[in-house]
Amino acid sequence: MVRPDSETRDILREAAQDDVLLEAPKFQTAHIDFDELSKSLSVLEGKLDKKPKTAAIILAGGTGDRFGREGGKQLVEIAGRPVLTWSAESFDAVGDVGLIVIVCPEDRQEEYLKRAIDPFPFVTPVAVAPAGPTRQESAFSGLEYVPEEFEFVVLHDGARPLVTPQLISHTIATVKGNIDCDGAVVAHPAIDTLKVVENGVVAGTPDRNVFWNAQTPQVFRSGIYRRAHAAALSDGFVGTDDSSLIERLGGRVLVVEGPRDNLKLTVPEDYKLLEAAVIKLYGKL
Length: 285
Description:
This protein is an alpha/beta fold. The chain has a single domain, classed as Spore Coat Polysaccharide Biosynthesis Protein SpsA, Chain A, CATH 3.90.550.10. It has nine helices and twelve strands. It has helices at residues 6-22, 34-38, 83-92, 109-117, 135-143, 165-176, 222-235, 242-247, 269-282, and strands spanning 27-28, 54-59, 77-78, 81-82, 97-104, 126-130, 152-157, 183-189, 196-198, 201-204, 212-221, 253-257. Strands 1-12-8-11-7-2-5-6 form an eight-stranded mixed sheet, with helices on both faces.
């Protein structure tokens, strides 16, 4: 057998890579290094590219009723920092993110900045936008603070402090690398048996292999995301997440498999789990 020389191998390798880029797989699950995502990081270092293309909208307007704490959960401290700070710092550590918009209650904007942003060395510009009565309205409010120069927008729940810069970067790269997709959402496959229940009676057991639990971050091309919000507002449509606004317009949204421990602080029982996970990931400050 004749072996190709080094130059020929390089050409073949480049051709193979080009073929991969031309394919737009439905699920983007093969390239995440979960060991890398789980390794301990002592410091989140801020980065800012010369010409960043992505703006981040961090939703921190929830009242925290289920958490049971007056004033919400965004400023609750975990391992020495507010929950919101942990989330925002991960976006600050992604060079392609050129703006972070914090969406929070209008009458508490100064408090949020004073406690969660100003004491920390952010290098990415941070703006605040007023939260609306619903999550969808809050997202639209944050979008209005994103200049047209940003080609991509990434949405994230402020109460998910375990998001990593690697996961954010990977999700952005997924959208950039697939020109025929409109966005990508982080999710993980359902592992529990699901039941369809009608009036308290089991009506069926669907195949769980087709079900995924959606998380954030969710990344979209800014143009289609703006059109999706405009269409939803015009039609009176309220979606359960940002991706659903684009899906109803026929947009193509990919799935990026994320780690199951990308947890959201929702109820008091979540606090200890998140605290232990944050300390394991970043170390105690």
